[in-house]
Amino acid sequence: MKKIEKIKIAIISSSFRNEVADNLEKHCTKTLKEKGLSDKQIEFFRVPGSLEIPLVAKRLAAKGNYDALITFGAILKGETYHFEQIADECIRGCMAVSRQYAIPVIFEVLAVYDIQHALERATRTVDNKGVEAALTALEMIKIMSKI
């Protein structure tokens, strides 16, 4: 098992709907620190929108410096098919990175029907998606270090 002080995590968040990403990052970072990580073990990358997340994830994974990548964003359903296109390609791209580089890519890009649904998941104290992302990343790092 990799020692907690050796773990390095990158968080990639969409600037679009930044109030959601800000809250997810805050809860995630708090949880990671509670589990023993320091500020220098967590790096943040902001991209314009959710569709840009997989490209940055791929570049970071290729560097080989990180034990896990965590992705945050919010995609809201509108009146067109655009919602489905962005959500589908974002998750497909992140899974491709995970498979190609054998690195956990924790996907918390929220595809929701209105902004309140996203804010609820990003700010609540129970079942917070930022907290879940942090815990999932640590568990996956543990599992991957055993294989």
Write the layout of secondary structure elements.
Layout: E1 9-14, H1 18-34, E2 42-47, H2 53-63, E3 68-76, H3 82-101, E4 105-112, H4 115-123, H5 129-146
Helix pairs in contact: 1-4, 1-5, 2-3
Total of helices: 5
| Strand numbers in spatial order across the main sheet | 2-1-3-4
- Overall tally of domains: 1
Q: Give me the oligomer status.
A: single chain
**Going by CATH, what is the homologous superfamily?**
Lumazine/riboflavin synthase
Going by helix content, strand content and strand pairing, the class is alpha/beta
CATH class: Alpha Beta
Low-confidence stretches: none
Give the overall average pLDDT.
96
Largest sheet: 4 strands, parallel
What characteristic shape results from the CA principal axes?
Answer: globular
Give the DSSP E fraction (strand runs of 2 or more residues): 15-25%
The CATH architecture: 3-Layer(aba) Sandwich
Question: Could you tell me the number of beta strands?
Answer: 4
Determine the CATH topology. Rossmann fold
